[in-house]
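The protein record passed on for reference:
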Amino acid sequence: MNSEIKWQKSSFSGGGGEQCVELAEKAGAILMRESDDPRVIVKTSPEKLAAFIAGVKAGEFDHLIS
């Protein structure tokens, strides 16, 4: 499954790029994985990812990282 997927890392990735989330698109779905464990892949829809990103931007999850 991973060989035909083109993963994209954020330009904000730290260090050698081992501490980041990678995203890809396949068949209309959004795939996500962590660089340090690329075998685990989470699948979601573009709409759900957009809602999550909006929540992050609005500060809804700030209490989890403070």
Remarks:
- The radius of gyration is 13 Å.
- The CA atoms of residues 5 and 24 lie 7 Å apart.
- The chain has one domain: 8-59.
- The chain is about 20% helix and 35% strand.
